[in-house]
Specification:
The chain is α/β, with parallel strands linked by helices. The chain is 32% helix and 22% strand. It contains 15 helices and 25 strands. The strands form 7 sheets. The chain has a 5-stranded parallel β-sheet. Helix 1 packs parallel to helix 8, helix 3 packs across helix 4 and helix 3 packs across helix 6. It is globular. This is FAD-dependent oxidoreductase. It comes from Antarcticirhabdus aurantiaca.
Length: 481
């Protein structure tokens, strides 16, 4: 247990082994891990415990997507010989399902749980007052080490007229009491794509406006499959379009685009990226370098102040995913508690977009490998070669394996049935520096999407079987019975 009281008196000075600022995935991982090893820990959080993922991100969005998938399943049941018809959507019940998912997970991230682990939890704003001291409310914290896990928030674009209209972000969209009549989404990244499909499936008209193409970071071939699914289901995509002005209308909003056209909707959702929460931490006082991308860190996640580490979305140049944040929160405990080296490997962190079909990626895309001038091959396996995809009537998928010398995996991208789950397998292979030779020996239960890795390996090695020397060797050995 911590040697500190869970509720420090005003004016208290605490001297823990570790002070963590931010109670999202990264901060909670660091705090719980340090406490488990017997370190004294103070956790400071001014907002909701659990951070963005639990309250406004991964958990509510995936719960909403699950409800939307149920509605779409009813619509598409006819392809299996089952009659269901157009589903009746009770949006209040959908919202209750989303809220229930949050409440079910909430206890694991709660203040009570962490105080039970021996962590001192202080619910207030924190800021540095010197290079080795942090002020949290009226409590001064002089920790041996600090971990900044302050996360990020929705970026609000500089759009003329935006201050005159109501708008939604991922922090408010899950509080809607009624289903939007026509939801206009500004931003074609994963958040925009996921929520566009979810609300369309639940019954809203949806227009998605993307400055570039939909899912611009992802492999173009894979993103095209997701794009086709959105369009097929009725999402109106305006790609290569830029919003230049917005104004209120009696029924909602009127969005003017750069090409002179306009879009009207009942609700406007901003999904135009994220920005780091770090401006009010007093970083300059502590000698911590930062910029618009976040707090500058080295490969061990240490800042310019040797006492301070930054993890999760707060760390500049690092992947902004919940699983990456949790990984970083655990990684920094190596140098903090054990004086062991630690090195963050951003390229080994997978990502997934949970549309239907989902899209997963780990390592380099084909375009990234080409841009780096790497010697590589691309093995593309369509889902028409997956028996599981045929049984589910879901052959609208593709896996692309970017392979370097001697069959080493440089990256894997996959979209299609269960692609999000299969990405985990390929992330493990990439993190262990495996190649297609390893995947060729992997035995997956039949039929599963994971088998597609073996199919890629077979395609890669098939030309070797046709070589004259290999065939001559087989012919020679045949003579010995």
């Amino acid at each position: 247990m911590s040697r500190f009281s869970p509720s420090p008196a005003a004016g208290t000075v605490l001297t823990p082994d570790l002070c963590v600022v931010g109670a999202g995935a990264a901060g909670l991982t660091a705090a719980a891990g340090a406490a488990a090893f017997g370190a004294s820990v103070v956790l400071v959080e001014r907002g909701a415990m659990g951070g963005d993922c639990l309250n406004y991100g991964c958990v509510p969005s995936k719960a909403l997507l699950a409800a939307a998938a149920a509605a779409q399943g009813a619509r598409e049941a006819g392809r299996f010989g089952v009659s269901a018809g157009e589903p009746a959507v009770d949006f209040a019940a959908v919202r209750a399902h989303v809220r229930g998912a949050i409440e079910a997970i909430e206890p694991a991230d709660s203040q009570a749980r962490f105080e039970g682990l021996g962590v001192t939890v202080i619910r207030t704003q924190a800021r540095f007052v010197s290079a080795d001291a942090l002020l949290a409310g009226t409590t001064t914290i002089r920790a041996r080490r600090f971990v900044l896990a302050t996360g990020s928030r929705p970026r609000i674009p500089d759009l003329p007229g935006l201050d005159t209209v109501p708008y939604l972000t991922n922090e408010t969209v899950f509080d809607l009491a009624e289903l939007p009549r026509h939801l206009v989404i500004l931003g074609g990244g994963p958040v925009g794509a996921e929520l566009a499909q979810a609300f369309r499936r639940l019954g809203s008209a949806v227009t998605l406006i993307a400055r570039n193409r939909c899912l611009p970071r992802e492999d173009a071939d894979l993103a095209a499959i997701v794009r086709a699914a959105l369009v097929r289901e009725g999402v109106i995509l305006r790609e290569g379009a830029e919003a230049v002005r917005v104004e209120a209308t009696p029924g909602g909003v009127h969005l003017h685009l750069g090409d002179g056209s306009a879009v009207e909707g009942s609700h406007l959702l901003l999904a135009a990226g994220r920005e780091v929460r770090a401006g009010d931490l007093g970083l300059e006082v502590a000698g911590i370098a930062h910029n618009a991308d976040g707090i500058r860190v080295d490969a061990s996640l240490r800042t310019a102040n040797r006492r301070v580490y930054a993890v999760g979305d707060a760390a500049a140049g690092m992947p902004r995913f919940t699983h990456a944040a949790g990984h970083m929160g655990g990684l920094v405990l190596r140098p903090i508690l054990f004086r062991l080296p630690a090195r963050m490997r951003p390229g080994a962190i997978p990502r997934a977009t949970y549309t239907d079909p989902p899209l997963g990626q780990v390592g380099l895309t084909e375009a990234e490998a080409r841009a780096r001038g790497l010697d590589h091959r691309v093995i593309a396996v369509p889902f028409t070669e997956s028996d599981r995809a045929w049984t589910q009537a879901r052959t609208d998928g593709l896996a692309k394996f970017v392979v370097g010398r001697r069959g080493r995996l440089l990256g894997v991208g996959i979209t299609g049935l269960h692609a999000d789950e299969a990405t985990g397998l390929f992330a493990l292979a990439l993190s262990r520096r495996m190649g297609l030779r390893d995947l060729s020996g992997f035995v997956a239960p039949y039929p599963t999407i994971a088998e597609i890795g073996r199919r890629a390996a077979s395609a890669y090695f098939r030309p070797y079987a046709a070589r004259r020397l290999v065939r001559a060797t087989v012919s020679f050995l045949r003579r010995f019975g």
